[in-house]
Design goal:
The protein has 89 residues and is mainly alpha-helical. The protein has one domain. 42% of the residues lie in helices and 0% in strands.
């Protein structure tokens, strides 16, 4: 799935790549090993897992509305659910 560029992150210091930029780019595997080690990071296991992955179904308009609020929408849903639980316990 292709994401649309975030206009907030595109400026004169970080312009959007052009087709020519992509054609000239090198793959990480083609770079020197020392460079690969310096930039290649892997996320390790959580020290104490605090989140559990699950699946929930929303009406389409609800999900679109939540996503339209921007980055962090899942955290905001989690916070709203926690508040609802506090008020209904």
């Amino acid at each position: 799935m292709r994401r649309k560029p975030d206009p907030e992150r595109i400026d004169e210091h970080t312009p959007e790549w052009t087709k020519a930029d992509f054609e000239q780019a090198k793959r990480l595997k083609d770079m020197p090993a020392s460079f690969q080690r310096s930039v290649k990071r892997m996320r390790g296991p959580q020290k104490s897992p605090v989140k559990i992955q699950t699946s929930i179904r929303f009406d389409q308009d609800v999900l679109e509305g939540l996503k339209a609020t921007g980055r962090g929408w899942q955290t905001r849903v989690n916070d709203a659910m926690r508040e609802w639980l506090r008020s209904h316990s």
